[in-house]
Amino acid sequence: MSDTSADVIVVGAGLAGLVATYELTRAGKRVLLVDQENAANLGGQAFWSLGGLFLVDSPEQRRMGIKDSYELALADWLGSAGFDREREDHWPRKWAEAYVRFAAGEKRDYLYGLGLKVTPNVGWAERGAGTATGHGNSVPRFHITWGTGPEVVRVFREPVMEAATRGLVTFKYRHRVDELIVEDGAAVGVRGSLLAPSDEPRGVASSRDTVGDFELRAQAVVVTSGGIGANHELVKKNWPVERMGPAPESMVTGVPAYVDGRMLEISETAGASLVNRDRMWHYTEGLKNWDPIWPGHGIRIIPGPSSLWLDAEGRRLPAPLFPGHDTLATLKHITGTGHDHTWFVLTRAIVEKEFALSGSEQNPDITGKDLKLVLQRVKKGAPGPVQAFLDHGEDFVVRDNLKALVAGMNELTPDAPVSYEQVEREIVARDREVGNGYSKDLQLMAVRNARSYLPDRITRVAKPHRLLDPAQGPLIAVRLHLLTRKTLGGLETNLDSQVVRPDGSVFDGLYAAGEVAGFGGGGVHGYNALEGTFLGGCIFSGRAAGRALARSLA
């Protein structure tokens, strides 16, 4: 089957693909939007996100008394990114400067103009490594979309669907691209396999049975196919052993099965430059989903700072590896322990106030824009989705005393038991430091610093208390798994999202945006992310691709 009915082929119907298509159709260009999944998956993994957006010096920040600026945000970004590769970090550095400028400038107005709104409470994610020049956000910058990921998808999906009614967009679902067509050094189309029709719900793994093939041609191709998070073999193949220790033997999966990374190799085979493939972003606070949607489905706890974090042998993680502070430094430490799991030990008081779960489906109040339900969060008791994990999740142990708690932990991990005496020693030492409003315990200092930010004190961070105080109980232990998520490297692109060849020249006709391009340039985040930057990277790079093509195409 052959088709030449479009100006541009967009490979991947996730957020970056939708944004590129939106910008192209605004300019009257015709787009073939190709995806290996069915129509139910339009919007890709962005649909499942919490909808966090990195904004700088926003009205929401200013209302909270937060003093932010482009200069501070860029210093945080560069301190986190740690760019150190002269060749491979050339474009990522430029993308970083441009993206932070976008986040401090027109990003909010661009999205608000499409109808997107954010909640007034600005979150403080990735609080950092404990130095002014190192990794982390100096101030809260995590703006949650009112409507979470589905709303981010909606504001681009609706104008794309309207453009489809005008004949500007044709959807090619269940079309798996296997090859880029390159003629005279330029990308002019794609070839691939027609997959068997699927009526699976969004996110559910679909058949890979083929029923035919296809060929599509256009003036340009934009690759927006996502990363490698569901392809554990590829994650392990690219794992940076020298930097991060041995690859974990087991991880839960934070993205749907279609996030397979196929287009990275396909693009590289066609002549694209693939850089920084060893940089990736995986979470350390994963849970096995008690009600899974995709294979190995994991959910991330977005923790407040108070839980006591123990390794698989019951030893407290070293400072400053506290909940919510430095994801990849914590990941490196965990891989060095010889185990793939850790433990949070906390109280009922902490879980009720500090546990949030990542994902649109785990936050029905914000996703559904239900203000009354949102207000329930400030009342006593765990949020409904958290309570469901307490009731049904296999990783939770709830007991009235420490001996029973440790016994329950060891029932979960009989091959890696913890010593009661070791756990007791860590908890008692920590509890001794709670009696005063000051202490030598850096985690308690971090808790008190967090509580100096009013929204955290009201809704996010529990008042410091002894873990062994019966009035705060019962005690809870949570087994934490490593959770796959994002690809930080990818196809090298210039600031117009044009793919670059290994010799630095532009690959005519080929563009890339979103996670497949490392969210811009082949790795805009460098080694570390500041959170709220993945959706924004898809939006910014997809917009760049669409606008550049709208300018250049006849």
From TrEMBL:
SUPFAM superfamilies hit by this protein: FAD/NAD(P)-binding domain (SSF51905)
Q: Molecular function (GO) terms listed?
A: steroid dehydrogenase activity, acting on the CH-CH group of donors
Coiled-coil regions listed? none
> Could you tell me which InterPro entries the record lists for this protein?
FAD-dep_OxRdtase_2_FAD-bd, FAD/NAD-bd_sf, KsdD_DH, Succ_DH/fumarate_Rdtase_cat_sf
What Pfam families is this protein classified in? FAD_binding_2 (PF00890)
Keyword annotations from UniProtKB, A to Z: Flavoprotein, Oxidoreductase
The FAD-dependent oxidoreductase 2 FAD-binding domain, residue ranges: 7-535
Domain of life according to the entry: Bacteria
Has UniProt tagged this entry with the keyword Oxidoreductase? yes
Give the protein's recorded name: FAD-binding dehydrogenase
